[in-house]
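LOG
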Amino acid sequence: GQATVTTVNNGGIQNVNDGTAMGNTIAAGGTQNIGNAGHAIDSTIYGQQEVAAEGIITNTVVEGGLSYLHEGAQSTGNLTINNGGLLAVNATTVTDRTVDGVSIDSNSQMVVINQTGEEGFLTVGDMVNDGMVIINGFHSLNGESDTTRPFEDFVVVHADTLAGQGSILMHTDIGQQKGDLLSVGQLDAAAQQSLDVQNNAASDVTVNDRLTVVTTDSGGQAGQFVLSHAVEQGGYQFGLRQINEGKDWELYALDQNVPPSVDPGKPVGPNRPVLSSTADAAANSIVSTYLANFVDTQTLLHRMGELREGQHHVGLWGCAYGGKLDSFGNGLLSGFNMKYYSMQLGADYQVNLEHSRVYFGGTVSYLHGDQDFHKVANYLAKGEVQTLDRDGDGTLKNYNAYLYATYMTDQNFYVDTVLKYGHMRSKFGVKDSVGANVSGHSSLNLYGVSAEVGQRFYLEGDQNFYVTPQAQLTYTHFGSGTYKASNGLNVKVKSRDSWLGRVGAELGYQFKSENPVNVYARASYLKEFSNDGDFMLNHSRESYSMKGHWWQYEVGINAKIGQQHNVYFNVNYNKGQRFNQKQLNIGYRYEF
């Protein structure tokens, strides 16, 4: 049968099977179903149109409504999508043309759905896209959509011609060398399309991987396809460049320095790839575990001042400290700063020997650090990587237990040894290159041993000015751990060792009285001897380094109050290749 110049109002349904409908208007809330080789000509859709079972539509205008083509449906003539309208088209397993021509205005969308279970195809004649084309999206007739779900079967969209200034959303898995593809015969000279390639942090990508996302027969200018944001794949950020004599565009790993070669026969990865904000935060969290351990171990040594003045067998002591660390850019890493506070509680027992004494003790400590990541995301502007000014943060918790033994002679020579076991937990939260929130967490164990020797020399007998040369060596083994990010990226850090040496001297003045007071200044040179550490971005290996040297400066005061109480306060500052540190310490010791 035929239906000519008919209006289907709200709640109404028009079924066109084995017949023709001409000049029909489907009002908002109305539905037109076309199937069984039915044909609708010159329809205007404010409501919903579903075309299936080899149904055909010709010269259709979708005015804020929905047109859904599937199961062999076809559009001939012009298909115009206006005023927030939506065209949903199922991909097929063949390359036959589904849509003769489509024009999408700036407020409208076309969604290409792949339900084939394999690679899908959609062939279009002439396409004018001033809105958005979502390749490999999902759409249901109740209006739900999802463009971020994982995909295994991708879609090739071919357009004989492409014009307009719109955007195209695509999905890729560069690590598997698969992804959606836009194929164009003739690219209009005025066409400009923004590619919104979805991030895929779970991809097993390396910095040498590349993937073509646009091909053309005609070629075009470099700026006719641009990225709406840097593409995060695995732990790296990818950009877009023109290849094949200007005919195609591919995704490639961004370089912090010079872009790699575009010779397709000689793929060259970047020397310094740009990490994703997630990878950068996770790797900087790895560095923060080293710094937190350094802070905690160094602070423990300040108990030496109280032990010198001890006259009793049992000592109970505690200290609190806080400060700030500024970690510099480290190879691929952007750096961060961390404010922290901590508390240590300890007890020891003094054993007197002839002309000497030995202290045996134990300590527990807790450190809490709050990190601020400087670089959290990047985007592309005119082909250049720019830093996006968003905050990223992290938290580190460090739990430690120590055993120590300190030997001191009456001639002020000492040997101090420390055994340590620790457990660290860290988490972070950042925004990726499209502004989505990403979080991650990890934990690791560590153990270490430290030995320090020194000799105090008084310049006038056993009082007043003195100098104390010191040397220390600290070994720490950090266990492995994995940062599991909410976006699918796994950052695994391998176990690693640290060998840290320190030499220095303390210059002080001791006021002899019933309540002795000691003021001092200390300068030390420290050097980390360990090699680089490794971490894996999914399965792609990268490295970081804490190897380097720095200077440590400190001023402080120790005061004995009565026979059983001792208090101390000091300020120290570290300046070096890898980080700077500022810290305040206050402590108290009770003896009986």
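LOG (cont.) second protein
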Amino acid sequence: MDESHSHLSLFIEEKEFCMIHFSLRRLPLALALAGAGLLASAAHAHGTWLAHIHGQSTVMYGHDGADTDAYDPAKVIDARAHKNGNAVEAKVVPHEQRYATLEADKPGVLGYTLRSGFWHKGADGKWHNQPRSAAADPAKVEKAMLGVMYSVSYQNAREPVKALGYALEIVPAVNPAKLEEGDKLSVQVLYEGKPLAGAKVSVDFFDHDADQVTTDAEGRAELKVAREGFNVLAVEHSVAHSNKSEADTVNMMASLSFESKHDHDH
């Protein structure tokens, strides 16, 4: 992210809410109006995950639970849901306050795509929410990318595990909501339905110093559940864009969120 890009932060009244019961902490929901919408992410600074806020399955975008950005809800597409292992209808509900929620009938798993769109870093050193071809002088564009994010969220511990079929996806070997903090969890990273070797899976997206586990030749990695309560795993993958006049790369991020079981012995 270009350091010179300033945020105009609007803070919603600080309320006690849970991000799928995320520690029941009081957190400000910071909605930063970022000009044309989502800010481009040059590293892993921004991501997306699903949180339960005031009873709604809310699409979040930002650095972590206490630092989230506003976005154009039209960028959230392709909602998917499973219930008892079967696909059920899911829809994206846009809100005027610049966010979106998902709706489905008591789903066991929810997922969506957040398409942040084309971004280029111009001669002015700033990121613009446009393809390279839209720049005043495309030859002076330092870099250009298409940003796409995918997120899958396990809503209960009873749902059987099944991939939702997104282009980039973290698929757990078991329903992670059955596990407790410190338990081992095996995952497989799939890109276009095939194992992705060498991918680095962050065991805790909200902790920027968290361990990363590299997938093997079958796209598999073993990690430990990082938190009691709300967890977000994340992985990134980039491929060349087919049209260099628009972008150099397609930069993808995928997250897997769930609430681990509470240790009742403590």
